[in-house]
Structures are given as structure tokens and as C-alpha cells.
Amino acid sequence: MEAVPVRARVYVACVAVAALLCLLPLPGIRTPWWAVALLATLYAGCERVARSRFVGISHPAGTFYPVLLAGAFLLPAPAAALVAVPGALLSHVEQRPLALRRVWRAAQLVLGVWAAARVHWALGGRDAVVAGDVPYALGPAGAAVLAFCLVLALLDGGILAVAERVPVRRAWRGLVSRSLAPIAVHGLAGLMMAVLWRSPYGPVAALLVLLPMCVSWWAFAQYHRERAAHQATIRALVQAVDIKDGYTRGHSERVGQASMMIARELGMDDERVEVLRFAGILHDVGKLGVPTRLLRKDGPLTPEERRVIELHPEYGHEMVRGIGFLGEARAAVLHHHERLDGTGYPYGLMGSQIPESARVVAVADAFDAMTSTRSYSRARPVAVALAELKRCSGSQFDPEMVEALVEAVGRAGWRPAVTADDVDPTRIPPPGAPVSSRPGAHR
Amino acid sequence: MSAYRPPPLFTLVHGCAALLAAGSLAVTLYDGLEERRVALAFGVLVTVGELARRNGARVREPAPLGAAAALSYALLGEAGGRATHHGPAQVVAVVLAASLLASVPHVARGQGPTLDHLARRVLTVGFVAVCFQPPYNRGMFDDWGGPAYALLLLALLSLTALCDAVLAAALAHSRTGWPFGPVLRDELRAVLGIGSAVIATGAVMALAVAVVGLWALPVFSVPLLLAQMSFRRYAAVRATYRQTIASLARATEVAGYTPCGHARRVAALSQAVGRDLGLTEPELAVLEYAALMHDIGQLSLVDPVPAGATAGLPAAEARRIALLGGAVVRQTGVDEAVAVVVERQADPYAEQPLAARIVRAVNAYEEKSREGGLGGPLTALEELRLATAGEYAPEVVESLARVLARSSLTLPVTG
To answer: What PANTHER family does the annotation carry (chain A) (predicted)?
Structure first.
């Protein structure tokens, strides 16, 4: 976001003014200032730690809402809203403009917490918290959490609509349903904090509630970090194949994308679509086992050389069969060169004997091979390639898959995005070349 | 391990736990249960927590909720504002009964009762209960203020967690022969992770039940369950990552550069040697990945090395392949340390990091012992010993010999 549109600035300013109005009655009310200070410090500290390099990736549900919600359950509305301010203003922001984002964040949280505290107060939640009447206290707390969630979603949708010109309906769709479950858990933790805070055991006991939450955030961040590393590994693996084969860059990724489009078009569920994306990405991984000399050979191959190259689906299957999460993608790796009429390899399966995933990947593979430039042929236009696929459907390709690809490309077009652009392919050493060590070349 | 006699410490710990359990059951049966409702509620929670247990070699605390519920029952002084009167015997009996009940499905599924787990649970809960219940029931904590009381519970649980870590490390040490120090360090690190969540939840549950009654139990279980779920997902993605790395390592085998199963065998044996030499868990992870991928540089060769025997290559050629391998590993985005180990596996040992020394020696042993046929392992070890002047680090070769002696000089079984 280089230049923030004026209407977005105005929107943020309006929200900030509303937040200030919420904080205005502060001097007039009786507030336990030490509690406000303690909670605010706690929130700011946690926020700092959570977004620092120590934890790495920030949590999608973002922040230490339990502290804020405990404030909403304990304090009068303006005081509870004040708890959010220092943490939000001091928090680490990744993108510019920093000041605007911080103000926006603070104003949003002030309004959310204020609304939650008002709802909680109106429903008589305060007395339930003080009395430690837990089954009853859950009701007002639930309502307060809902109000908090709604206000945040409303404001978030608003900024999306104003700043990015996302249509209002689309901006709001899913915002509440996505954040309600995590915030409900935060609310539960907030309620526990509030109850213990007012108990004879005091704030010390309340702080202990945060520990399990912190631990689970830490584990969650580790999970994301490990997952990202895993994906980077798979991507690098695939690039090694592309380079070894002398393909144009990103062939495997594009096959993955085309497989995904076909799978979506066939109405498969998200999990299967993801598996098919991996099937497309990894379909040629067995080529790592074929001598580079053969893969790059100019001119016609002898029958024996051809036989060696045709072993690559079996090599690939041998490699990936131990990776549990790939599921049916493993069958796709083994059978992506089978043909419907039974003249393919390695097993010469016919028609429905060929696994569905393999039929998807076969079409995607052929499509990308035709539409990208190779050492031996120029790229053909998408329409020509689709026509060619249609011509071969029934004998080589499954007509259902070809039809799905034609539909999907017709609707969304074919704009393959190579996501693996952070790794420079020239860094893989050519065979036989001397290589010096490169400390810090990656990560 | 059928012909294997458990070491004395093992017998001692299990014996103590059995004695404590039997004594507590007898006392409880004789005296009857105090506050049945409370006992039942905690028993149910422990059962639920234990049912959600997931066994696995790399899981430190398989049932966090079960542990937290058991500890909080041991620390319970009041429920909903009324004092409770149960003694340590009842605590141990309830926890034991609930754990046994919950292990029925696990046994039925053929996973076997994890006696270690049960023994440690009984001992830790017994320790906490003995430290807390008698003084409390005699009114010794009555003059303590609320916050001080909360801190007391926390301190008691932390002490217990430390003792438990020492006990677990001692058990692992006596069972496997791994050095005590690094095992203890790994156990203590686990206390900082999920262990701290268990401690906090245990203390908080005991306090919350005192304030609001038994309703606190389900409500306060939620954050801990969340933590457990996060840890499981983390463990799952780690497992997947390991599978992917192992598959990548198989590329050289598929291509015919190295014999089948070589990478996996080197990784398994390197891990054993690494443990013997006292590496910590993170270091062992690096070692495992590096051992799996140590031959990956050969993929960049135009023609395979004969029989994949890199140990017999001229030093310059071996180093070149190692550097190529390091470059490939860097590409994959694995931890930088792994690439360094792969890169330096062919250097003279004086210049190598420990992990690279291990990979080098184990790789050579694996290749030589395979070539040697029936007497291969012994001959290979002898050859390695003779070459300790410049190529293989003496301490690694000695450790390898110890590890092999422990597993009766056979090649590790591959999975």
C-alpha cells in the first residue's frame, strides 16, 4: 500500500474520534487505576513478545485478547477500553504507514472492548464475576464476546471496503464466522482471569491462566514455521527436477496449478484439491533418479535410453510412497503417463483402471508441456493446446478431465503464477562444476 | 528385548509406585471415599484426559489434561467454598483408578499399558499429595494470604515437575544407556514447553474449584486442550517434514547412486552414536537430516560412484561431492546447520563439527561392513579404528563401537 487513499484516512479518523468519545468519560468515573495499569502493561508486554522475532510468525487471531476481555469483564467500559491503547500504539507493525496502522488498531480495539464491556455490564455479568457464579457468568460473557467479535468484524470489513474497494458484501463475508471460534476461547480464558482476579487469590492466580494460552501460541507459531520450511523443501525439490530436465522454469508448479483447477472444476473438496496440487507438483520427481545426460540429450533417443527415461514414474513413486500426507497423489505420480487406451506406461492400465488423480495430472502435464516453450518446441497458444487435448481425449486423456480444464480455463483464463521465485535456479551447480561453499546463501 | 533384564533403578521405581498404589488403594477401601462428588468429577476428568493420550516416542507429556487434573486434585483444599477432607491415599487411589480405566481402550487397541507413564504419574501425584494434604488438613496454611497460597501451589508443582524430569531422565538413562546430562536437559526443556502449561493449569484448577466449584473443571480444561492440539499439529507437521526429507534422501538410491536403505541405516546409526555422545534433541534433529541427505551431492554427478562407496574415494573427489551436496541441501531450505554438516562430511576430522564427524564415521562403517559380508561389521570397525589417525575421530569410533556392542554388532534393522 504505497499511497493511502484519502477516504481511508478519513475512515480511520472517524473511527479514532469514536474511540476517543468512548474514552472521554474516564476522568469522571471511579476506576481502580492500578488494575488498569497492570492489565495494560501485561497486554503491551505480551503483544511485544508475540510479534517479536522470538515467536516469529504472528498468530492469525492476532493478539492477547484474553487480557483485553478480562479487562472488559472486570472494569467499567471506558477503563477497559483504555487497557488496549498502549499495547496497540506500541505494537510492532510490519507495513507502512506505521502511525496510521497503529492508530487504526488502537481505535478498533478500543471500540470493540468498550462494546464488550457495555454488553457485559448491561446483562449483569459483573455481579456474576464477583460472586464467582460460573454457569451464570458464561451467559453475559458469551454475549460480550459476540459483541466484541461483531464490532471488530464490522470495522475490518469497513476498512477493506473503503481502502481496497472490496465490495461490502464480500468484505464482510466470513469475517465473523472465521474469528468467532478463536475469540470465544479467548473469551473463556478472559472470564477465568476475571473470576480469579476477584477471588481471594488475586491477580497472581489470574496471570497463571495466560500460561497455557502462551504455550499454545508458541506451539502454533512453531507449527507455521515448520510448515513453511516443509513447503520450501518441496518447492526446492521440484525445482531441482525442472532444472535437471532442462524444462522451462516452473513446469511442475504450473502442472500443480492446472491439476488444482481441474480438481476444483470437478467439485472435489478442498483437501483433495490440495492433494492433487501436490500430485501435479511432484509428478516428475522420479526424474531425479534418471541420469542428467539422458534427460538433456539432444536428438533422438535409442530405445534403451527411452526405456530408462520411462522408468521415472516408478522411481518417483518409490521416492514419495513414504510420505503419508500425499495420499492419492502417490498413485498419480506412478500412473501419470498411462493412457486411456492402455498404451501408456509403466503398467499399461486402461480406462477406469487408471486412478482418477493420475488422469487429472496427465491432462495438466500435457497442457503445460504444449503451452510452454521447450528446447525442442515453441509454446503453442492456449486455444490450440486445448483443441489438441480435445482431439486426444478418449484415446489418451480422460474426456471428463479435458472438459473440466477447458471449462476452468475458459472461465478464469490461464495465468500461471510461478510462486517459487524466491529461489534462484542458477544456484544449483551444473553437473561436474566445482562448487565453493556459500555460507548464508539461503535462509 | 525379550531376554533383556530391567536395570535395578527400573525395578526400584516401578516397585515404589506399585507399593504406593497398593497401599493407597487399601487405605481408601478401608476408610471409604470422602466427598464422593468431587472425587468422581476429578476421576472423570483424569479419565478423559488419559483417553485423549497419544503415545509416541517424541511426545514428552502424552496426556497433559490427565496430568493437570491429577495434580490439581492433589492440591485441592476447598471446593466451592467448603473445605475438603480427602487425604493423599484417596488422591492416589482416584488417579490410579481413572488412569487404569482410561488405559483399557489403549490396551484393547494393542498399544499395551505404558507402565512407565503410570508409575511416574502415581509417584508424582503421590509426592504432591503427601506434601500438601496432611499439612493443609491440619490447618497449617490457614494464615497464608490468598496470593501467597497461590504461589505456594505453583512452587510445589514446579518442584514436582523438576523431580519428575530427573526421574524420567534417570529412567531413560538406565533403559537406554544414553548419557544422563543431555537426557536431563531435554526433559527440562520439555518442562518449559507443555510442562509449564500443565503446571499452570494444575494450580489454577485447584484454585478455581475452590472459588467457583466443580464447574471450573470443564471451563479451565479448554486452554490446555488447545495447547495440546497445537502441540499435536506441530508434531504432525514435523513428522511429515521428516518423511519428505527421507524421501528426498531416497532419490540417490532410486537413481542407483547408493545401495537401497543406506541413507536410512546411516541416519539410524548416527542418531544412536549422537545420543551416546550426548547430543541434545535439536542437535540430534540436525544430525538425522544431515545423515539422511549426506549422499545427495552424488545426484549432481554425471555417472554414479561404483557401488556408492564414497568412503573409498580420493579425498579431493569426496570433498567435491560433499560440497555439491551442501549446495543442494541449502536449496531445500532446511536448517542451515544441516547443510554445513553435509558440506564438511569429507573434511579431516580435526576440522569438522561433531555431527559431521559422526556422519563420516558411520557412513564409512556402513559401507565397509556391507562389503565385508559375514564378518563385515567387525572388520569394518577394525579398519575404522586403524584409520583414526587422520580420517575418523577416535571418540566417535569408540562411541560407535559401544553402540554396536549394545545392539550385538548387527546392522540396525531398517523400517
So the answer is: CYCLIC DI-GMP PHOSPHODIESTERASE TM_0186-RELATED, LIPOPROTEIN
- In CATH, what class is A246-420? mainly alpha
Q: How many whole angstroms separate alpha carbon B88 and alpha carbon B68?
A: 16
Asked if A195's CB is within 8 angstroms of B208's CB, the reply is yes
Q: Are residues B171 and B209 in the same domain?
A: yes
Asked if the structure places residue B344 within a domain, the reply is yes
Sign for the CA dihedral angle at B216, B218, B221, B226 comes to negative
| Nearest-CB residue to B247 (from A229, A320, A432) | A320
| C-beta atoms of B302 and A191 within 8 A | no
CB contact under 8 A, B247 and A319: yes
Are the beta carbons of B63 and B50 closer than 8 angstroms?
yes
> Is A410 within 8 Å of chain B by CB?
no
Residues B127, B273 share a domain: no
Do B201 and B136 share a domain, yes or no? Answer: yes
Taking a C-beta distance cutoff of 8 angstroms, is the pair B46, B71 a contact? no
Task: Please judge whether A185 and B331 are an interchain contact, meaning their C-beta atoms are less than 8 angstroms apart.
Answer: no
Check if A383 contacts B (Cβ < 8 Å): no
Residue B355, domain extent: 255-406
Question: Least CA distance to B301: which residue of chain A?
Answer: A431
- Cα–Cα dist B411/B371, whole Å: 13
**B145 to chain A, minimum CA–CA distance in Å?**
8
Which residues share a beta bridge with B82? Answer: B79
Residues on chain B touching A290 (C-beta within 8 angstroms)? 255
| H or E stretch at B78 | strand B78-79
- Does B45 lie in the same domain as B181? yes
| Residue of chain B minimizing CA distance to A432 | B301
Task: Give the end-to-end CA distance of chain B in Å, rounded to a whole number.
Answer: 17
Are B232 and B376 within one domain?
A: no
Write out residues 187-226 of A within 8 Å (CB-CB) of B.
188-189, 191-192, 195-196, 199-205, 208-209, 211-213, 215-220, 222-223, 226
Q: What does the alpha-carbon distance between residue B320 and residue A116 come to, in Å, rounded to a whole number?
A: 65
Q: Which residues are A59's β-sheet partners? A: none
Give the other-Cβ count within 10 Å of A306's Cβ.
12
Side chain identity, residue B289: Y
- Give contacts of A 232-271 with B, CB under 8 A: 232-237, 239-240
Q: Which amino acid is it at B281?
A: E
Name chain A contacts of B303, Cβ cutoff 8 Å: 291
Where residue A409 falls (left for φ over 0; alpha for ψ -120 to 50; beta otherwise) is alpha
Return the domain boundaries, chain A.
Answer: 6-225, 246-420
A437 touching chain B per CB within 8 A: yes
Torsion angles phi and psi, residue B41, rounded to 5 = -60, -45
Q: Are A257 and A280 in contact (CB under 8 A)?
A: yes
- ipTM of this predicted complex? 0.78
**C-alpha pair distances (Å), B282 with each of A52, B279, B337:** 22, 8, 11
Residue A102: how many other CB atoms lie within 10 Å:
16
For residue B150, give the nearest of A201, A222, A223 by CB distance: A201
**pLDDT tens per residue across all 443 residues of chain A:** 456 778 888 888 888 888 888 888 777 777 788 888 888 888 888 777 776 654 444 444 456 788 888 888 888 888 888 888 888 888 777 777 778 888 888 888 899 999 999 898 888 878 888 777 778 888 888 899 999 888 888 888 888 888 777 777 777 777 777 778 888 888 888 888 888 888 888 888 888 888 888 888 888 888 888 888 888 888 777 777 777 776 666 888 889 999 999 999 998 888 899 899 989 988 888 888 787 777 777 778 888 888 888 888 998 898 888 888 888 889 999 999 999 888 888 898 888 889 999 999 999 999 998 888 776 677 888 888 999 999 988 889 999 999 999 999 988 888 776 544 433 333 333 333 333 333 333 33
User: Which residue's C-alpha cell is 526446492?
Assistant: A236
